[in-house]
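2.7 Reproducibility. Because tokenized structures are sensitive to small changes in the input, we list the exact sequence used for Nucleotide-binding oligomerization domain-containing protein 2, including any N-terminal residues retained from the expression construct. No trimming or masking was applied before prediction.
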Amino acid sequence: GESAAKVVVQYIQQKQETGSALNQEKLTPPKEFLKYQKKLSSSVSAQSCFLSTYGGTSHMSLDDIYTEGQLELAQYCADVHGPLGLEDIVGTVGTVNEEADTVLVSGEAGSGKTTLLQRLHLLWARGVALQQFLLLFPFSCRRLNSEHR
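Resulting structure tokens (single pass, no recycling of outputs):
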């Protein structure tokens, strides 16, 4: 936990001091960082494999029940795009704004926002997607929504 955080901070500071961009593809993080990344990946994978029902009475395999949803741009967006895939939303180039660094996913309760996040967490942990991100910290929409600012 804390020792890994120190390594991450040191790594970022070194990159900033040398003027290297943090998003370069040929970075070699320290072995302590990679060790933490592996632990985090294993933990995220274990947490993301199963969906719990709201009552917490049963667990379902995410792989067994997940279906690709139809993701769309907001109605007020002038650009016309067909259905979007996960890479369109979280890829390195924004769909509407190529320099965008934030994605807002909205929808009614129960529409699948947390399930989508959980799927992204699992794909990262398995090394299938989002590999441009060295670390990924999972959260649920419900938990985020319950936090007081």
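The radius of gyration is 18 Å.
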